[in-house]
Amino acid sequence: MNSSLPIVDLRSDTVTRPTPEMRRAMAEAPVGDDVYGEDPTVLRLEEMAAEILGLESALFVPTGTMGNQVALAVHTRPGEEVICDSQSHIIHYEMAAMAALSGLLPRILMAEKVFPTAKQVAEAIAPEISYISRTGLVSLENSHNRGGGAVMPVPRQKEILEVARKKGIPVHLDGARIFNAAVSLGVEAREIAQGFDSVMFCVSKGLGAPVGSLLCGSVDFIREARRVRKRFGGGMRQVGILAAAGIVALEKMTSRLTEDHKAARLIGEGLAGIRGITIPVMPQTNILIFEVGPGWFSGSAPADRNYAGAFVRHLQDQGVLALALDAGKVRLVTHFDIPPDSVERTLRAVKNGR
Q: Where do the domains of the chain lie, and which CATH numbers do they carry?
């Protein structure tokens, strides 16, 4: 690895570090005990989040996973099913928490192009029969992490929301990167959030805050969510020092996400012509997922066929960090905390392996 150059860390936008303005705000934040509802900085962040999404209330939680799991617990009863797509974050990256914490069973939909259709959701809703588990919730994700940052159009969301509404089933949105989705669609985040019973989004990741997510919904929903957050170990005290960074993130960082999207697309376009690399879909946001095959290797391909692993190790030797999703797929995520020449260095590192 060339130690004279800064690392290009494209493993995730979770590696972003707080900006100098965030650090100053954290040092100067007025604080109080948030479990008692007395931290003024947290209260301000929660009010901002609810206002931005056009919902009544919000709750500051340590992580997006906790935000999702609190929502699932509030909306449902143990023994009910949660409809979600097979590649969703709550299936792959949340440690079976819906089962372990809330006694819920996922009803998994095999979406052909990442997002489920309204027809699939309608068919997955359980009939009212005494010996069949009820459908307690529908959960969607926008933008979609394992879908390569794909964005669900608002009209498609509305079709699913209408199906659920007719059956009296609440719908939760895992909007960890909702602002990336909004920028891609050219709409305000509140337009994406409209109609959902709850929405979670992160102020970390591409917005750069070091910690935190917001769970938004009605006043009654958030009142109960606060109780469940405590049950799950998420009660926090003088946490305004973290919320202060979230405020800066919402005020200053959402408007620059288009730069990350452009960088991801440039890398995708540069990789598209390289033998052995297949890009199923060009990035709509800041996430690029592509396939690496034996044709990429200039010498012998790995005998264990872990092409993605070997590819990632090669990039690491060149000062570029990436994430292998499985033996054949690699993920790159752009963000504000990568060097200015990251696109060029990444493409050069890939080409150096051939």
A: 8-15+256-351 (3.90.1150.10), 20-252 (3.40.640.10)
